[in-house]
Amino acid sequence: MSNNLRKGALSSILLVVDGIAKKLVGLVSTLILARVLLPEDFGIIAIASLMVNFILVLSDAGSKVYLLRVDNLDSDKVNTSWTINFILKSTVSIIMIIGSFYIDDFYGDPRITPILISLTVVFFFNSFENPGLAFLRRDQNYTKIVKLTVTTKIISVIFAVTAALILKNYWALVIAQATSAFFMIVGSYIICPTKPKFMLKNTREQWQFSGWMIPQALFGYFRSHLATFIVSSSFGQAVLGSFQTMKYIAFIPSSFIIQPIGEPFLVELANSKGTSGYFAKQFKASFILLMLVALPISSVMYFNHGLVTALILGDNWTDYSYLMSAFGLLIPAYVMLQHGTRALLVYGKTKQMFFYDCIAFVSIYGVLFAHGMDEIKSFSFLLVGMENLLAGLYFLFILLRYTGLKSTLTFVVSIIPLIIGTIGGHLFSVYIRIDEVNIFVDLLLVTFSNTVAFFLIIFCLYIMGFKKFSEWEYLISLLLRIVNPVLSIFKHKDGHNIK
Hints:
This protein has 22 helices and no strands. It is mostly helical. The chain has 3 domains: 1-211, no CATH class; 213-414, no CATH class; 469-498. It is globular and about 60 Å long.
């Protein structure tokens, strides 16, 4: 079982590399296209993409997660999952194509209809991707998948830039998405040469798991976009642009680092659910590992929001840097929410996920409307504060439910080093900061000193007594099992050279 968790951790590293590579390629693409296309072109695509993302949520039956956590994965389950997705995507695609003729009337722009139809067709053809990739994910064989996704991203960028230089309009962005879908479908059959079959043999079993996934996803979609609608109607376009941009940047660490690190642990938690003691140990140790990554990032964003904003966006955005500070605090909330959800997914409790989204939706926006919409700073911090409070209660409930009271109390004590390390890391970085010299150097020194102090404090507390806690003992043993094979490779090479 320890080897499985080690394999999961190595898979996490690979997925992080995948996320960073795709993000860098996407960033280069955006910088090039922004110099060829007009902002209006991006705006038209954004409206159409918003609609397509909605049907994506509407047709997502949670098949990927279901196949990762199912006890025995076989061709029948994979093909049934693929068939359910195909039926859902076909249905919503037809509805969206019909509805597209009414959407352009709402926005008063006839260009939206052909773009929306095109993107919907691309979305539909994505359903032909080889379902056999589920076997690679389940075995945590991510090497082939990472190579495919990064290669596809690079090819789509080449096609997008070429089309932009020739057409000089928004169709270049549509071509990019179509190219990506085409090469992803073809590549999926090259790296995993299995053939999908229409099958509904295990429909009832999967729908018991997935039936609550769609309404839960819809609630999550509306919850995340309602705040944007409120800002757009209450604070004006300048604030809306800052709100969206800061939120997007603050979410990058979660989506491209923390999420890939945590994804493979779903399989390991599913494998250990039959042994309550081992499940509890793995669940808590993997949470600490995620927080070791999340807290230094969140701390730098919160305490040094001015530096982060000035470096990434420029001086024109610094008046709204407090939004970066607020959204930086969403990173720990994201870890608590996502890791707690993994436990519910392992035990198939998707109904509880739906109930949480309902409660969170009503609680957050009830408090926001009661507080009022007078000032964007208080609105943002109240929004983030409610997200953290509810995510913390949600995670605490799952700890109690699936690890027990005694284990939960022990765990609360065991995370004290994380809290002390975060505070100490910031206090130490305050003395390192060099104001008005160079923004990049200043932020680099602050980040480095904060992170080093954070881990040194945690290491000292571990040596002083926290190593007695099973969570830390298990986590350290895991890290050693990851590092030792790498060190042995270098030792072997040195010995070979000497010989």
